[in-house]
Design goal:
By secondary structure, the chain is an alpha+beta fold. It has helices at residues 5-31, 71-83, 168-181, 218-229; strands at residues 41-47, 51-56, 116-118, 124-126, 150-158, 190-196, 199-205, 244-245, 248-249, 256-261, 279-283, 292-296. It has a domain at 149-266: Alpha-Beta Plaits (2-Layer Sandwich), CATH 3.30.70. It is globular and about 55 Å long. The protein binds 2-acetamido-2-deoxy-beta-D-glucopyranose (5 copies). It is found in: Membrane.
């Protein structure tokens, strides 16, 4: 970098200009280098023209910021963010029964849950496409042949008290619009919206043959929605949920979510114990042969963890507190 003073002086204004341009250019590229659909990412302007490349925290898998990120990558990113909280204490193993379904999952290269999940010890179990355990826990010899698809999701929630009930068909239309616009879910996958004030139930259905390449998965949609309703939105820079029906605000309580897989789960009843990752309720759905175990993931605002409960098949009851 040895240069004559004459050259430096003569080109100083130009150099300064270039420097300024480079700095503002870089700042601008970094300013808008964020992932609209996933704030748990690290984005750098790596593509030509300063276009962002965004990678999920915790895995470094590249994510598509025009679509939803898979639930597996989101859980993974969330766990990696937690681990980095060095100033915090770690709750004792006995203190936490995680009804949020939160664990540090293994994701495949496409960001889907691997069929078999293990924790840091040698305890393993099989999960469905929403990452919820669907077998007993076993040791490392446990085999999970395939990732069983969750093809039906029931989201059950209440809205906050209002002066008058919502009009069902308007509510239905508004929720379908929300799912289409915010979560990019084609309306054909919203199978039904049931309403009996103040309870709203949203049914999402999507089997593998109906899902076209590029379609979002109902597993991811339900997870984004759940986080939005809890006020923990995954979207970056986007305001929280703002839904109103004919001018009347719709404020939703945290949902209870039921997942139904294409194949019945494989729990041996006697081995069900407390301390499960999720609350498990056994139901018989009239139209579904066999037993469907629906797993509820819910996080109560109070910050307390709900006790695990196991119901016999034949009924779906809910505790009054749910
Ligand atoms: C950032 O903004 C500039 C100008 O507004 C634009 O040319 C560029 O493509 C944007 N980059 C990203 C990653 O959005
Ligand atoms: C990202 O997602 C959008 C919307 O689904 C899709 O059109 C686009 O092709 C995807 N881009 C990549 C690189 O996969
Ligand atoms: C792994 O799971 C087993 C059984 O649930 C549990 O006893 C153990 O504490 C877990 N280990 C970790 C590191 O989470
Ligand atoms: C709900 O609104 C629709 C139009 O959006 C109307 O046709 C219907 O009568 C309303 N239902 C009730 C019960 O008010
Ligand atoms: C997928 O859903 C469609 C419409 O509900 C149904 O006709 C089709 O048989 C289903 N396919 C499978 C493999 O379940």
């Amino acid at each position: 970098m040895a240069r004559g003073p004459g050259l430096a002086l003569r080109s100083l204004p130009l150099l300064l200009l270039l420097l300024l341009a480079a700095m503002t250019g870089r700042a601008a590229a970094q300013d808008n280098c964020t992932c609209a659909t996933n704030k748990m990412t690290l984005c750098l302007p790596e593509y030509p023209g300063g276009r962002c490349q965004c990678r999920a925290l915790g895995t470094n898998i590249e994510v598509n910021c025009s679509s939803l990120t898979s639930k597996c990558l989101l859980l993974k990113a969330r766990m990696s963010a937690r681990k980095s909280g060095r100033g915090l204490v770690r709750p004792s193993e006995h203190a936490i029964v995680d009804n949020d379904g939160l664990y540090d999952p293994d994701c495949d290269h496409q960001g889907r849950f691997k069929a078999r999940q293990c924790n840091q010890t040698s305890v393993c179990w099989c999960v469905n496409s929403v990452g919820v355990r669907r077998t007993d826990k076993g040791d490392q010899s446990l085999q999970c042949d395939e990732l069983v698809r969750t093809h039906h999701i029931l989201i059950d929630l209440r809205h906050r008290p209002t002066d008058r009930a919502f009009n069902h068909s308007d509510l239905d239309a508004e929720l379908r619009r929300l799912f289409r616009e915010r979560y990019l879910l084609p309306p054909r996958f919203v199978a039904a919206v049931h309403y009996e004030p103040p309870t709203i139930q949203i049914e999402l259905r999507q089997n593998a043959s109906q899902k076209a390449p590029g379609d979002v998965d109902i597993a991811d949609v339900a997870y984004y929605f759940e986080r939005d309703v809890k006020g923990e939105s995954v979207f970056s820079g986007r305001s929280g949920l703002d839904v109103s029906v004919r001018g009347q605000p719709l404020l939703m309580e945290p949902p209870l979510i039921f997942y139904l897989d294409e194949k019945p789960p494989q729990f041996s009843m006697k081995r069900l114990t407390s301390g499960l990752v999720a609350v498990i309720v056994v139901v018989v759905l009239a139209l579904v042969a066999g037993v469907a175990v629906l797993v509820i993931s819910n996080w109560r605002r109070s910050g307390k963890y709900r006790k695990v409960e196991i119901k016999e098949m034949g009924e779906l009851r809910r505790e009054p507190s749910l």
